[in-house]
Known about the structure:
Blueprint: H1 6-18, H2 28-44, E1 45-51, E2 64-71, H3 92-97, H4 100-110, E3 121-126, E4 129-133, E5 137-138, H5 140-152, H6 167-171, H7 178-193, E6 198-201, E7 207-210, E8 213-217, E9 231-234, H8 243-248, H9 275-278
Helix pairs in contact: 4-7
Amino acid sequence: MEEIKQEDIHDLLEHFCRCLYKAAEADSKSRDVMQRCLKLVTLDYSHVVISNSEGELSANYPSHLIILEYEHPSTNVSGALRPMEPPRTTGTIYENMHDPTRLRDLFLKSRFARCRARFPLPVILYRGKHICRSSTLSGGPEIYGRSGLDYLFSVTEANAEDGDEELMGAVQTQRDWQLFDKVRSQDIRLLKTLNVGTIIDFMVEKKKVKFGMNVTSSEKVDKENRYSDFTIVSLPYPGCEFFKEYRDNDYVAEDLVFDWTQSHVDAVIGVPDDAVSSQLKIDWEKYKVMGIVCYI
């Protein structure tokens, strides 16, 4: 493929800053970028691609969702072949994860569980483990609102495989109190299919409240304790609202400290004392006096 130059990266960042991306409204520039990404990924990884061309899974995710399977062997700087993690051929988790049809069905059913339908999606493959991105959990108003609109306007059609587990069956009776629980259960099923064991929570509040309603929530305060099977690491970090301060500070992040005394900021840092965190040599108790960029 053609060489990617510095000016190409500059143009991409400029396009990103100026244009709001929606999968169903992707322009020619966005489509070209997507195709180039697919070519780049093919050089290094075996992968599967799940279509999101009309934004039917999430309008905020790319038109093609790339799920990495394993890394191809390649040559390192010394000329030797870099060792590759061999692909696993057995095990239900692995098989389910790389079955595009099943995975797409899980994406479809679980998308109401998280803010703006940004369900957990693998984005980085490191030593055979997937690092996923997602938004925080949706609150009741968004769950009922999005599921109701989806039903009324027939955005998607779901294939029934089990009447008790089918999301659209619950949507048809969305006033049923079980809808909330069903949506959360689909989210957990997706997480387990992706073999997720740890959830990193960056929220600075336990629940985000707007106009007196809980619009988003954190796994760590789920009333039914549904996420107890996962290790939840609370690492409160300022959201995009705070980055106005970063801009006003002439884009200098050093010594720029978030105001942790605000009334809505109630999340507490919680890092497990394990073999990994102990190697970092960080005094987590001092996080409230750290700048948004901290050099170690």
